[in-house]
Amino acid sequence: MDTPLREPTFLILTALAREPMHGYAIIGEVAALSDGRLSLRPGTLYGALDRLTDAGLVELDREETVDGRLRRYYRLSPTGDATLAAETERLRRNVEAATARLRARSVQPLAPRTAGGLA
Amino acid sequence: MSTLERRYRHLLRAYPMDYRHDRGDEIVGTYLDLADPRRRWPSVADAADLVRGGLRQRLRAAGANDLAPGVRLAALLALTTAAFLAGFWALVEQYPPPAEAGVPVFGPFTSTGIVAWLAWLVVAVLVLVAPGRATRVAVAGAVLATVAVLLVSPVAGLPRPPLLVLVPQVALGVLALAVDSHLPLPARALPIVAAVGGYVFGHAYYWDAYRWSAEQVLPATGMVLLGVGVLLAVGLAMRRDWRGGWAVVVLLTPIGLLSVHILAGAVDGLGGAPRPTYPTLVGAALTVGLLGPAVLPAAVALRRRLGGSPSAPCPTCGTRR
């Protein structure tokens, strides 16, 4: 699986980090994690789950039938866990770097540049 | 089974049969969980999602996961080529034949083609500053403008560029509709650089009316596009990335249409007749237009035959097919 992860992939793995989930629950969790910005549809979700399974990041946990409907639960594999942790660390460092730059700028206002340098 | 479920299952036929058997209940169950209980028909977005998912799964089953990225790569190359040609033809449009020649013109321009070329130049700017939906809408508008120039001009009695020029532009435009929404800045700059390059290229050399220029410029552009595609394919394949190969396969139709004058010449007289007849040109264009798109499913089938494993288990549920 190519890194950096795309946002839907990152959020699906994040959703599964807490506990194994079925497709409907993953869709709800991804919507909550993204503050409603990302609304996955089942065709897209199951395609993503197939790719994540192919890449060894997600595994089948168990199957249940609820109200006559088949539900498969998915969980993070150890590789998926490590990939999510590495990606989160990468994003955290980026956020820290950006935050430090922005904080420094707000403390020390930008001075206008002088043309021609020192005389 | 409710009416809604039956309709979702009908749409599920977009998926391969064995995948439907393994995953159909789960997918339809999730759609039903999400749907309003009073709903009787799947929404348009759900229908599009199912068809897209089914197509993606068919490609995956054929071992052609990299086809979609390949099409997106081809779309960028097609858009860049279309922008180059638009820049070039925009220059040709600025030099209409003198009034004493008695050749009909379109206001201060050579023909109605200026409408299409301006639409393409707008696309080249938009892909740089507003990638995504705005660009795709503009590409669709440019394709429609090109088709309108082709169809409406003869009816209105106005001069238009020859079919030799307009047909490959439409083919490039249709492919450009698949352009990626998340291109890095250097890639987004390619179309506008190509458009300016086309205009400068036209200025640097002497170019005459559409017909003569088209016979010189279009096959050369097609060859350059093929060369760039092959180089990319080889370079990416060295990293075990097969996008470039699919891009070349997808680009064969517009490349063939750009080179239709050469192909028709080869039919009219071995070695390439300098002036292929009009019926031969039309016949060659129709052959390329029909055979070119057929190469893609043939390549997918070949990939499945070479790399497919019919007994492979479903990656998610583990069921053997």
From TrEMBL, chain A:
Gene3D superfamilies: Winged helix-like DNA-binding domain superfamily/Winged helix DNA-binding domain. Residues 12-85 form the Transcription regulator PadR N-terminal domain. Pfam families: PadR (PF03551). This is PadR family transcriptional regulator. The lineage of its organism: Bacteria, Bacillati, Actinomycetota, Actinomycetes, Micromonosporales.
UniProtKB/TrEMBL annotation, chain B:
The chain crosses the membrane at residues 73-92, 112-130, 137-157, 163-180, 187-206, 218-238, 245-266, 278-302. It comes from the Bacteria. Keywords: Membrane, Transmembrane, Transmembrane helix. This is Integral membrane protein. It comes from Micromonospora andamanensis.
